[in-house]
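[job 0412] stage=complex_fold ligand=magnesium ion status=START
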Amino acid sequence: MSGDAEMREVHEHMAAAMEGVAPLPGERLPVAECVGLVAAERLVSRVDLPGFDNSAMDGYAVQAADLVRAGAGRGRGVRLQVIGHLAAGDAPTEAVRPGTAIQIMTGAPLPPGADAVVPVEDTYGGAKLVTITKTVPAGRHIRRQGEDLAAGSVVVSPGDLLTARRIGLVAAAGHGEVLVHPRPRVAVVSTGAELVAPGADLAPGQIYDSNSHLLAAAVTAVGGLTAYRGSIGDDPELVRAELARLVTQVDVIITSGGVSMGVHDVIKDVLRDSGTVEFVQVAMQPGKPQGLGVLLDGERRVPFFGLPGNPVSAAVSFTIFVRPVLRRMLGLEQPETTTVSAELTAGMRSPAGKVQFARARARMLPNDRLGAEPLAGQGSHFVADLAEANLLLIIPPDTTELSAGDVVHAILLEDDDGGVTAR
Ligand code: AMP
Ligand code: MG
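[job 0412] stage=complex_fold status=DONE, emitting structure tokens
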């Protein structure tokens, strides 16, 4: 059961992970909670934008022809009687007639009879009488009803990403809620008897559980919701009970550890005979041992990822296999990752027959090309170098030796946005 002949290729495992995964059914959420989510419905504006003719300035609503008739601007002012005051939110009660003006603030509805606004800067006077020193053409400083968008126009279509700016439009169009593909609820579970929560003291042989924190943060960064994060040891009965409980509460389960060839590989022990999860070797480094499948909650099939325990393996496996699945559940478009080409700044070796996902840092080279500086620690336990990395080099299976200057493809390890705080 060791033969490399049985190894599955990376793209095959990616396809297996994606199989049967669809955007989560639409849920109606308050518009303020929708940033980073994808709309599952078409929304049209409930109102014209602007909703009514209104003033673009603080000033006086007037009849433009009245000012011209009275000779404003030719070295002399025209005095008008101020017959009212309109602030944003007021409804007009009086009409502007020749010889009169209504004091008006930005956003207040234009009163009947008026066809222009004189900015306060071009006037003196006050609440009862105002002197206008400049003429204005008809229509000046008026925002016209519907000039931005007509009522009934589409503001969101299914598949649209709700950016902060689009959320502004949805709200302006009068919608307090949007039907969206909701954030997948994800359980992130560490296994291993050696693990202790960061912050506590370590006994000999113990280490801090970093995977559940890294994976929960990665879930949040993609836009998922970490509904559970915990470290559950490696007692098979406890692990079995925890998984049975979690499957009823979440959309995806991610475990780390316990999927390789050790004698305490609890995830493998518990799920080997499930019939719905398979344990395979993927032709990649890091991340060779993988558990993948579904856990059943009645009829509901909950995607399950049994990631390897080495922190770098868990992180890389998340990027390559889990992240695309969460993105599809969110209704986000492919490609799931942004790839770039970069020139190696140093030579490196890579194992034959496996894709190596090597950690590197991007930097500008003296020739103004993008360089990739491979990090020193390529073993799957080098968490410090993992934290420094912002590129994941994809070294193909048939490449074993690379020199400085060779061009490689790399996944850009971006900071996704649109996440929420894990609970
Ligand atoms: P495993 O896959 O369970 O055999 O674990 C492989 C290696 O990763 C071992 O050195 C574990 O101690 C380590 N490891 C497993 N889980 C975690 C975790 N949650 N945080 C940090 N290291 C871990
Ligand atoms: Mg373990």
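Confidence is low (pLDDT under 50) at residues 416-423.
[job 0412] exit 0
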